[in-house]
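User: Show me an example of a complex going from sequences to structure tokens.

Assistant: Sure. Here are the input components:
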Amino acid sequence: MTTEQELRAIVISVLTEVAPDIDAATIDPDADFLEQLDIDSMDFLNIIVAINERTGIEIPERDYPKLSTLNDAVGYLAHAQKQAAGA
Amino acid sequence: MSDFVMPSLGADMEAGTLLDWYVKPGDTVKRGDIVALVDTSKAEIEVEIFEDGVIDELVVPVGVRVPVGAVLATLHPVGAKVAAAVGAPVEPAPPIPAPAPRAPPIAAPAPPPPSPPSAGPAPPAPAPVPAAAGTNHRLRVSPLARRVAEQLGVDLATVTGTGPNGAITRADVERVSTVAVPAPQAAVAPPPPPEPVDRQAAMRAAIGALMARSKREIPHYYLQLEIDMSRAIEWLHETNLERPVNDRLLPSALLLSAVARAAVEMPEMNGFWIDDAFRPGSGVHLGVAISLRGGGLVAPALHDADRKSLAEIMAGVRDLVQRARAGRLRSSEMSDPTLTVTNLGEHGVDLVHGVIYPPQVALVGFGAVRERPWTADGMLGVRPTVTATLAADHRASDGHTGSRLLTLIDRQLQKPETL
């Protein structure tokens, strides 16, 4: 089980790979990162793919809106992980 | 033997700096192989060769900036014998005391040397010209410069070299020859010495120059159509449920595919306006507008988009975006687009009235796909819609033709399963 802290580190590392010009320290955890980081749908898909590769968590397309801020994304992943473990 | 010349990597390019050679004399190359890296000041571009053959000679050394059309390398067909004399670009002058054989220029004005890539057989390479007698230091002259000097009747001894280690380049020869040969050569600007460029500023300037030219020369007309995307989006969600995350499709893939298929039916919107005439594109190569982080824009070609599956379009666009941002696009991608598509809706706007990328004759734009009020069968409801726009060149088409392109795009999007 990956801790929330680790999940957060994974998401931040994925974000900075897709948008190398951003400074991880300046990410507002409650701001929509599509707007904040100026990423488009292709970037977002790459982020979802990378998160899946690192965590093994499958994110269905209908859940994309639930990952729109850093805090939401971490919360979603932690929840999905628990569900998968409990199932 | 034929020449491999500096290609035009977009209508805004006048010259390029050769950054690296990926081949050497004697290497066998196939059409499409990446043979060199060129800096256009906007970006570094991997240049592909456009015919099969064996490299004879690399004419332009690394680090030298040359105008579009300048010979970069020479090659001969596979299996052909290499001309013995070639291949010794900067040999010391043979100890022949005779004066340089000054090819007497034919009375008629010599044609300007830069030849388009497809020009007929290149003139036979002259035997190495002994450097001017009387000079003790060895004269470094590129073979191309020699040939041009011979054609123009320029005495190499009178030319000051500005190339690496004082080598005489074609531009040096031409500079001298402009005194004797008037009009055509004057057009070839002497290449400025390579200097570190502020890429951001250079790109801004290049975009500015090209867009100003577009607005100055192209009589744009604009059309727009709101398209019901409910079928397309529904189909997309269904197919994505079955696809692993890596193979999922984005709405933009559907939009690109729809444009490509519509363009096949409307060849008059897919091509170029050159020399007061329309030239249809060979194939549908969609220019995909990609904004770069930190500013700037490129629109490289997604080749044969009409024949690609949605998965192939996704893979192609992903690859283009990645390489555009890493600054590693290929020459064919820069010069081939026949119709550009801009998907500015990605950034939230409802519609975009585009500026045509010369010499293309049309540009299709898409706003954001989002839920909006929509009437159908006398009922007001909410559906995902997108506003498609067309900016088109009135010299090449009329609004009637343009409106057909938009309605064809709409029709394609109503049967997403066939895209």
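The lines above are the inputs; the final block is the predicted structure for all two components together. Confidence is low (pLDDT under 50) at residues 84-137, 179-188 of chain B.
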